[in-house]
Each structure stands twice: as C-alpha cells, then as structure tokens.
Design brief:
The protein has two domains: 91 residues, no CATH class; 156 residues, no CATH class. It is 44% helix and 13% strand. The chain contains twelve helices and five strands. The model has no long low-confidence stretch (mean pLDDT 86).
Length: 289
C-alpha cells in the first residue's frame, strides 16, 4: 500500500512547467572565453575549442531530445543563429566529447532513509523484427541500480551493470558513500551479506523484506530481522519501517523511463553504460529545476 502523497500539487505542477526552461538554459555562454582559457592553461597538444559547460549542455540535449549527433549539430547551428555568442560544433567533436562526459549526482551529507531497487534497460531497438521472426539471439539488457531518498524522492546513488549482476551484489557499491537511518528493499535483497553490510552502516534491523519461508536458524543479522518480522507481524513491521515509502524508488524508475524511454542507443558496452549514467544524472538535474 502506498502512503499518502502530501505534495503541494500547484507548486509541484509549476516546477514541472519551469523545467521546460532547462532546454534553453544558455548561461554558460557568458563564461565561454574565461572557461576555455582556464581549460587550456598548461594543456599540451591541441587546445580545447569548446568549454566543458557547453559540452554538458550538448550532452543533456542529446539525452533529452534523443537527437543523433548529426541532427544535434544541426540543432546547435540553427540555435546559434538566434543566440549571440553561441558557437556550433561538428558532430565528430560532439561525439568525441560527449562520450567522455561523466555526469554525477550530489550525495547528501545527512542521514536519510533510502529505497533501493533496479530496472532493466534495453540495449537497442535495432533488428527487433528479425529476432522475432527468426528467433535469433536475444539482445540482452543492462541494469540500473538505484538508491532514492524517500523524503525528497531524488536519486542519491546509482550503478550501471550488465544483466547478469544480481541486485544484492550492488548494495555496498550503491550505499558506501551514503549515511542512512534505514534502507527499504524487496525480497531480491534478502541475503546475509546485505544485512551484514547494513549492520556496518549502523542499521541493525533494516526494512528489507525477508522471504515468507525464511528461518532464523543462526545468529546472523538476517536472522534478527526475520525474528523482528515474525514478532511484529508483516503489517506492523511495514508501519515500523514505513515500508510503503519504497514506492519512491519505483516512482523514480517509472519517471526516468517515461521521460527518456527504455532503450539506450549506444552499441558498445562502454557506451551503453555511459549513456545510462547520463540518463540518470539528467533526471537528477531536472529535479533541481
């Protein structure tokens, strides 16, 4: 059951409208020459022609609008005709700089309750009809592992892996830099290693849903949580941990796919991972608008 959503809806709707301004946020133009000078100071070899903030802008437009690089070049060329100081870049430069771009999200410095989950992202839509018709090898997936602050509903950490990586394996990489009061996870994370790690993080009985047939047959941290759930009963256990707030991570996953789609366009494994990282980072930036 989802807990009541007490957002100020008029204010929230206004923020959604204002996010549209992000697509034409060109403040970086004012610092163009100054930033380039700093980037090229003591640089060996060919100097940079375009500042980092411009490339970040291009990377986000590429991600938001799903433009191929040649069309992105055309978009920038057309936009530069209306915006003084904006310079276009050729698609080769855009490809080289954007694929190296790393976008991250800020890590909160306060103790939070996190909800953790993962989702699959299709690696390409190309050739689907051939695969379906001839039963050729499936295309596979990559996985986005996500940790969300249940209060702000913002991503606080994410990792990208291949489809073979199990959810519980990514708990430590996800939460290593996060201060947590509790962690809400479904049965995919019901592993001794997860409970032991969360204990090290200061959460002795986390909001990790254990399996119905789970047995507390040792002195592990997982057994303590199993006994807690049996003692309280599932409904009372949910209330103690506010387990209904786990929907926040599902909501973020749904929003990301709704805005950016369920497919990455890159064809190399490295490119797929970087594109997925840009998608999550871009969504996080949108939330700040």
């Amino acid at each position: 059951m989802v807990e009541n959503d007490n957002r100020n809806w008029p204010e929230y709707n206004e923020r959604l409208v204002k996010r549209g301004w992000f697509y034409v946020d060109l403040d970086f133009i004012e610092e163009w020459d100054k930033e380039l000078k700093a980037m090229n100071k003591k640089k060996n070899g060919r100097p940079f022609k375009y500042p980092q903030t411009f490339i970040q802008f291009c990377a986000l437009i590429y991600t938001f609008m799903h433009l191929p690089y040649r069309q992105l070049e055309g978009y920038l060329h057309a936009l530069s005709g209306f915006v003084p100081g904006l310079r276009s870049a050729d698609y080769t430069t855009l490809w080289e700089r954007i694929r190296k771009e790393e976008l991250n999200i800020p890590v909160p410095d306060n103790d939070i309750v996190v909800a953790v989950d993962s989702t699959g992202i299709k690696v390409t839509n190309r050739g689907d009809w051939i695969r379906e018709k001839h039963g050729t090898k499936r295309r596979g997936w990559i996985k986005v592992h996500l940790a969300v602050d249940v209060e702000t509903r913002r991503p606080v950490a994410f990792e990208i892996t291949d489809e073979k990586t199990q959810d519980h394996e990514m708990v430590e990489p996800l939460l290593k830099d996060i201060k947590i009061r509790d962690s809400l996870m479904d049965g995919a994370y019901d592993k001794k290693s997860v409970f032991a790690y969360l204990k090290k993080k200061g959460v002795s009985k986390p909001g990790v849903k254990t399996r119905k047939n789970a047995v507390a047959n040792d002195d592990s941290d997982r057994s303590e949580s199993i006994l807690e759930m049996k003692k309280l009963g599932y409904n009372s256990w949910k209330k103690v941990h506010g387990y209904g707030r786990r929907w926040s991570v599902e909501s973020v996953i749904s929003a990301i796919k709704r805005i950016f789609g369920e497919t990455v366009r890159a064809t190399s494994p490295e490119g797929m991972i970087k594109e997925a990282r840009r998608i999550v980072a871009a969504y996080s930036i949108l939330l700040c608008m």
